[in-house]
Amino acid sequence: MPKDRYKANRSFLKDTSRQQVDFSLTEQSRGLPPPPLQAPCPLHAARVDLPDGRAALAALAQMPVGEAIARRESVRQYSTNSLTLEELVALLWATQGVRRVMGPAVALRSVPSAGARHSFETYLAVSRVEGLPAGLYRYLPFDSQLARLDVDPDIGRRAAAACLGQAFVARAAVTFLWTAIPARMEWRYDLAAHKVIALDAGHVCQNLYLACESLGLGTCAIAAYDQEACDRLLGVDGEEEFTLYIAPVGRR
After folding, report:
1. Contact 135, 152 (CB under 8 A)
2. Contact 210/65 with Cβ under 8 angstroms?
3. Are the beta carbons of 118 and 125 closer than 8 angstroms?
4. Which of 15, 50, 109, 251 has the lowest CB atom count within 10 Å?
5. Chain center to CA of 96
6. Structure confidence at residue 18 as a pLDDT band (50, 70, 90)
7. Whole-number pLDDT of residue 187
């Protein structure tokens, strides 16, 4: 018998009733507009145009996908060398790149998502990427741009502190911090939304692992972090948008 303290969490994972959505009750069925596919960008944020991420990944990949799967591992030791902007763009496209927009509610990306709802936003704590001042950025996949939210030479240390002091985060060239905007999934799936948001996060980070492996880089997924500290670092409200998953990346 599982210990009582495990039962609630196990029940959440097993609860098939949440999969039986009464679509007559969803915001979508009631004709309410969907949340935007990309969160609005702060007006003060400078924008950086990005090269084609799909082309960058194809040009820089050093191995076929089968080899990348076989070699994939978590890496916590990074050199002090910088990533190139092309390498960063390749990783961004692999994890959240937009392949095709099919309307105001649907876009196909480089990773699967329930109903193509894609609940995530990608933030970057950039320490060493050629051509980018150290600081906090957000990926704007529909614009092929980065929004520079803050210039901060100490962003790596601050990210590590928010990750419960895990020192290897501070040594990374860049740390990916994904937030969830649950309303995007709730609009279509109501109470079934939250389990699939968690599943979708795994798709995103696995693509980061495989892309890093193919580019000769290293990453390590992090789920142990201070929720409030990470949300403050990113400037999100912690309710309608909150940190969900983190992965530092560096050159091996």
Report:
1. yes
2. yes
3. no
4. 15
5. 7
6. low
7. 95
